[in-house]
Design goal:
Elements (H helix, E strand, L loop, with lengths): L1 H17 L12 E7 L9 E3 L4 E7 L7 E8 L10 H4 E3 L3 E2 L2 E4 L8 E7 L4 E3 L3 E9 L4 E10 L3 E8 L10 E10 L7 H4 E7 L14 E3 L2 E4 L6 E3 L5 E4 L10 E6 L3 E5 L2 E2 L16 E3 L8 H4 L2 E9 L8 E6 L14 E3 L4 E9 L1 E11 L2 E3 L13 E8 L8 E9 L6
Parallel strand pairs: 2-11, 20-23, 21-23
Antiparallel strand pairs: 1-3, 3-8, 4-6, 4-10, 5-9, 7-8, 10-11, 12-13, 13-16, 13-17, 14-29, 15-16, 18-27, 19-20, 22-27, 23-26, 24-27, 25-26, 27-28, 29-30
Length: 416
């Protein structure tokens, strides 16, 4: 009897551990400029139709043309491991070496650039849903991983962004209203089988899930809530452009060439108490580009140390930290993008090694284990944000969550 109890306990513990949400594995410091792109829309991660290509690329600053291998994993709508076997979601085989790589040319910072396309001659994805690409070293150690989504056109999604009706959030939040209509006749038991995930600016660190349809209109599911589908509006991102490291550009004070290039940005200010001012941005994303010399941007664009400074006259409490926040490191918070107080200048300062290009960034506050994205930048209902609605459906008897519809909305067309 004791052996049976121990066996059951082990089974349930393994089941619980396997059911945990899978987060992306952050790369080490020598892996830079990770980008995974696909589809017609700009985004931090791609959402492509089944069969469309996804391009995955990164730089290794060790510049030793190391061998890297990739694997493809499949997940449920909530990023818990799927019960599908590999041959059920993928045709072909993975754990193959990334053989498209080249060394940088005529740059101060040497690096090896890697590129991978999916599908390819070895891999073809068979079902829609959530995927993760994992990169391993030659020693079979996980180096980093990134998410991407594949959808099928089995439902249409109409969406719009509104100002909240509750007055305490009228000036600071945005409410997402949307409707989902299946291409076939209906969804079976939609309250249980349809799952919706809402994202602001393609960021997985603050999603809204577990939303039931508010009501039905024929075979259309209507989601016209106020509070359950509200996001902070936030503010527009700061930006800088290092496409040419020989001259200064807007928001860059000066550039110095030492062992590597050094780009010193203008000092930013806390905007929490300022009125909203529109400024075009790409919602935290970045684009690699270089006009210093002709050639392949992937291998000819150089790296520079970018110096950030935030005017803030008070040193934070022990449980508070400020970070530089953006897609340049997949919105991670770590020691590399943490800022430190300079009491002589009354500034918070930070330095990042970044490849030439156009970058968006903002400053965020971490207090204990909580992240406050907009406490330093302010939050406005008029801010421009891109919203993504992912609609998953598990048919009766099904074993996976198909991504059957994708909706997009932009607060630039804000409704009252």
């Amino acid at each position: 009897m004791m052996i049976k109890k121990l066996t059951l306990l082990l089974f349930f513990s393994l089941t619980l551990s396997n059911a945990q949400e899978q987060n992306e594995h952050a790369p080490p410091a020598f892996i830079k400029s990770v980008q995974i792109r696909g589809g017609p829309n700009r985004g931090v991660f791609p959402v492509v139709q089944l069969g469309e290509p996804v391009n995955f690329r990164f730089d290794d600053l060790n510049a030793d043309e190391a061998d890297y291998y990739y694997r493809i994993k499949y997940y449920n709508y909530d990023w818990t491991p799927s019960k599908l076997f590999q041959n059920e979601y993928m045709e072909g085989y993975d754990n193959l070496r990334i053989d498209d790589y080249s060394t940088s040319f005529n740059t101060l910072q040497r690096f090896t650039h890697y590129s991978l396309n999916i599908p390819n001659e070895n891999i073809k994805l068979k079902v829609s849903g959530n995927y993760m690409i994992e990169v391993y070293s030659a020693y079979d150690e996980l180096v980093f991983s990134r998410k991407f989504c594949v959808y099928e056109n089995a439902a249409s999604v109409q969406a719009a962004v509104y100002k909240p009706q509750n007055m305490d959030r009228f000036a600071t939040h945005q409410s997402l209203h949307f409707a989902v209509t299946p291409s076939d006749t209906f969804f079976a038991n939609p309250d249980e089988n349809v799952k919706v995930v809402l994202l602001q600016n393609y960021q997985w660190d603050a999603t809204i899930t577990d939303i039931k349809p508010q009501y039905y209109s024929g075979n259309t599911l209507e989601y016209r809530y106020q509070a359950p589908t509200q996001f902070e509006g936030g503010n527009e991102y700061f930006f800088f452009d290092t496409k040419d490291l020989r001259v200064t550009t807007p928001n860059i004070n000066y550039i110095n060439r030492a062992d590597l290039y050094e780009s010193y940005l203008k000092t930013d200010i806390v905007r929490a108490q300022l009125d909203y001012t529109y400024a075009p941005d790409i919602n935290g994303d970045f684009e690699i580009r270089n006009i210093m010399r002709p050639g392949n941007t992937n291998t000819d664009a150089d790296y520079s140390f970018v110096y950030f400074s935030l005017a803030y006259p008070y040193e934070l409490e022990e449980n508070e930290e400020i970070y530089i926040y953006g897609a340049f490191n997949n919105f991670e918070l770590n020691e590399l993008n943490k800022m430190y107080y300079n009491p002589a200048l009354e500034l918070y300062e930070g330095v990042l090694l970044l490849k030439q290009g156009f970058y968006n960034y903002k400053y965020v506050l971490k207090q204990n284990d909580l992240l406050y994205k907009n406490s330093l930048s302010g939050s406005h209902s008029l801010a421009e944000n891109e919203y993504l609605i992912l609609v998953y459906y598990r048919n009766i008897g099904g074993r996976y969550d198909a991504l059957v519809g994708v909706g997009r909305a932009n607060s630039f067309e804000l409704q009252n």
